[in-house]
Write a structure and sequence with these properties.
- This protein is mainly beta.
- It has one domain: Glucose Permease (Domain IIA).
- The chain has 1 helix and 9 strands; from the N terminus they run βββββββββα.
- Strands 1, 2, 3, 4, 5, 6, 7, 8 and 9 form a 9-stranded antiparallel beta sheet that branches.
- The longest helix has 4 residues.
């Protein structure tokens, strides 16, 4: 919410811990800022893990997978199997998971070959 396209920074491919590269972009925003779905689709997974913290996976059109990570919280009542439209509230910006020592931000990833497979740079799609 409130982040303009021209305010996005392309952080795709930046180096990360353990020799990884960044498979997405980071969108800086104050903690608690509303996160809206970039696509229509089905909520395929809601979980809390060490890397992404609180995350939402949405399976979108044509088998695209959309990954929202480091959330402070999911939207209350959001459940696996829910259908969301582009622009629907899905969570709130935070710094959970391996981002706990960084400024609050949303990590957004886009995958074209299945959940967590075939990462592509989401920056051009959001710009």
């Amino acid at each position: 919410q409130g982040i303009k396209r021209h305010g996005l920074t392309d952080t795709w491919g930046a180096s990360r811990s353990s020799g990884r590269t960044h498979e997405g972009i980071d969108i800086l925003a104050p903690r608690g800022t509303k996160v809206f779905s970039a696509t229509e689709g089905l909520v395929a997974d809601l979980r809390n893990n060490n890397l992404g913290g609180k995350v939402v996976w949405i399976m979108g059109p044509a088998g695209t997978w959309h990954y929202y990570a480091h959330l402070d919280d999911h939207k209350r009542g959001l459940s696996v199997g829910d259908y969301v439209k582009k622009g629907d509230l899905i969570g709130y910006v935070g710094n959970t998971g391996n981002a706990r020592h960084t400024a609050p931000h949303l990590h957004y990833g886009l995958y074209l070959q299945g959940k967590g497979r075939g990462a592509v740079n989401p920056y051009p799609y959001l710009r």
